[in-house]
């Protein structure tokens, strides 16, 4: 027998309110909003999840993705919108991704770099938002370059510009915006990582995890994610393909 919506709601949101962790550091999926606190694709998904389960929604706003997982220690959220990373998956349960976003570099026009691989070299300093998915990916990948961490993605870009660093790492849409807003900057054409954005929930909640996985697959299949990306003018982001549950 399939579980009832009431049993799923109780497993997913034990307080009776769906607390959704929103990462403002990922401009593709969320942005600050004066009325609601946040708006964007991840907020639309949170609202749809709450609607399906008949749960009121509370947005728990974070400046960066790196701040969200520590919130588990304080029971701060029920679901989160985060990149799927091994370090995070050791502490939270993830769905399959619903979108893919490239991680790449912002460099100066006159810089000699043509591809991302060329930046892993002695003396190369790369600004990065601490704890972001691309920080975790580059920490695993880089052998020779140095990561210079900043509190947010915007601060990392400012640090790159102000202190003469060789590059800033980030998600492609955010870096394209930064290059368009300044002179003498460009974004490399290739990527060091394909960032897989999924949904997460705390600990071992098998009933909630199965429902959340199926929810993500449903909103990919019925066009909800694609429509949300278009509604929020997020171009150049790929909806992830279907993925069967592993259980």
TrEMBL record:
Query: Please, which domain of life does this record's source organism belong to?
Result: Bacteria
Q: Which UniProt keywords apply?
A: Endonuclease, Hydrolase, Nuclease, Signal
Q: Where is the Solute-binding protein family 3/N-terminal domain?
A: 17-236
Record carries keyword Ribonucleoprotein: no
Pfam families recorded for this chain?
A: SBP_bac_3
* One annotated GO molecular function: endonuclease activity
The record's annotation in InterPro entries points to: Solute-binding_3/MltF_N (IPR001638)
- PANTHER family to which the protein is assigned, alphabetical: ARGININE-BINDING EXTRACELLULAR PROTEIN ARTP, MEMBRANE-BOUND LYTIC MUREIN TRANSGLYCOSYLASE F
This chain's protein is named Restriction endonuclease
Q: What is the lineage of its organism?
A: Bacteria, Pseudomonadati, Pseudomonadota, Alphaproteobacteria, Caulobacterales
């Amino acid at each position: 027998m399939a579980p009832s919506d009431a049993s799923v709601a109780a497993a997913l949101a034990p307080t009776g309110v769906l607390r959704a962790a929103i990462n403002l550091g990922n401009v593709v999926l969320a942005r600050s909003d004066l009325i609601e606190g946040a708006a964007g694709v991840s907020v639309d998904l949170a609202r749809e999840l709450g609607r399906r389960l008949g749960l009121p929604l509370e947005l728990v706003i974070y400046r960066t993705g790196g701040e969200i997982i520590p919130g588990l220690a304080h029971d701060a959220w029920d679901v989160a919108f985060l990149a799927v990373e091994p370090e995070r998956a050791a502490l939270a349960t993830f769905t399959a991704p619903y979108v893919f976003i490239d991680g790449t570099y912002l460099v100066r026009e006159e810089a000699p770099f043509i591809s991302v691989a060329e930046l892993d070299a002695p003396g190369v300093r790369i600004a990065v938002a601490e704890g972001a998915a691309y920080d975790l990916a580059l920490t695993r990948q880089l052998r020779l370059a140095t990561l210079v961490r900043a509190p947010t993605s915007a601060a990392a870009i400012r640090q790159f510009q102000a202190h003469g660093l060789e590059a800033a790492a980030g998600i492609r849409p955010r870096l394209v915006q930064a290059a368009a807003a300044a002179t003498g900057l460009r974004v490399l054409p290739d990527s060091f990582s394909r960032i897989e954005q999924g949904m997460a929930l705390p600990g071992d909640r098998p009933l909630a995890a199965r429902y959340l996985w199926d929810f993500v697959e449903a909103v990919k299949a019925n066009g909800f994610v694609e429509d949300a990306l278009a509604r929020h003018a997020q171009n150049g982001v790929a909806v992830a393909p279907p993925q069967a549950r592993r259980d």
